[in-house]
Design a protein that fits this description.
Strand content: under 5%
Number of strands: 0
Radius of gyration: 21 Å
Helix content: over 70%
Order of helices and strands: HHHHHH
Largest sheet: none
Structural class: mainly alpha
Number of helices: 6
Number of domains: 2
Distance between the termini: 61 Å
């Protein structure tokens, strides 16, 4: 019984240590790369140096966020199974249109 509690604390310490190292690395990378950014355009679309596919992927990644995920769950709650269809189809159509007509302008 007592050994089980000690094992839980040891495991928790390892997990907390890994999370702490991860956070330090992420903060360090953020500080290092923040020195390269001169204007907001450098941050948002990489200074117009991305290829077409990376621009589309970046736009898609920007769109997919917690708000979109919570919105899909809200639609499912309000409208049932039909609500699940509303959001993804509209989003897919929007991303295709952005990719076809606007990604080259973002580059």
């Amino acid at each position: 019984m007592e050994n089980d509690i000690i094992e839980v604390f040891v495991t928790a310490n390892w997990i907390l240590g890994i999370i702490a190292v991860y956070l330090v690395v992420i903060i360090g990378m953020g500080l290092y790369f923040s020195r390269r950014i001169q204007e907001s355009i450098d941050l948002t679309i990489a200074g117009r140096k991305l290829s077409y596919i990376y621009t589309v992927a970046s736009t898609l990644a920007t769109w997919i966020c917690a708000g979109a995920m919570m919105g899909a769950a809200g639609y499912a709650y309000l409208f049932g199974m039909q609500g699940i269809i509303f959001d993804p189809w509209a989003a897919a159509l929007t991303m295709v249109l952005v990719g076809l007509f606007f990604a080259h302008r973002l580059r």
